[in-house]
Design goal:
This protein has 134 residues and is α/β, with parallel strands linked by helices. It has two domains: 60 residues, 2,3-Dihydroxybiphenyl 1,2-Dioxygenase, domain 1; 61 residues, 2,3-Dihydroxybiphenyl 1,2-Dioxygenase, domain 1 (Roll), CATH 3.10.180. The chain contains two helices and eight strands. It is globular, with a radius of gyration of 15 Å.
Length: 134
């Protein structure tokens, strides 16, 4: 069902498409139910159901590194069903080369009523995985 005003897609330019694809295959495909929607030499997109999709494109302008505190995108947040699923994702994260954020305050770095895991993608974009339902 199409919802008026719903986000259609987000496009993000990245430093290393191969590293980005490896990360988002792990996160979006393996854990959050997305599938690859489109793929071409300089990009890939992921979609959940028939709704909003996320596009990653290899940037040609690599001089300035990404900084989430500059003007622009700060982070992407995704729902994950259940606190146990978020805990399992965190355990798996410990075996991978990705950086957890706010580890000392897990799972309540976002506040006492907000169960979430924070990590960085290969470009240091903050990713928030929010436990919902159960």
């Amino acid at each position: 069902m199409t919802v008026n005003g719903a986000l259609h897609h987000v496009e993000i330019y990245v430093r290393n498409l191969a590293a980005t694809q490896q990360f988002y295959d792990w996160l979006l495909v393996d854990h959050l139910g997305y599938h690859v929607y489109q793929e071409w030499a300089s990009g890939i997109s992921y979609i959940l159901g028939e709704g909003t999709y996320i596009v990653f494109v290899q940037s040609e302008r690599l001089a300035a590194p990404y900084n989430r505190t500059n003007v622009g995108l700060n982070h992407l947040a995704f729902n994950m069903i259940g606190q146990a699923a978020v805990d399992r994702l965190r355990t798996e994260l410990d075996t991978l080369a990705y950086q957890e954020l706010y580890a000392a305050r897990y799972p309540f770095a976002g506040g006492p009523d907000h169960y979430a895991l924070y990590l960085e993608d290969p470009d240091r974009i903050k990713i928030e995985i929010v436990a919902v339902g159960d």
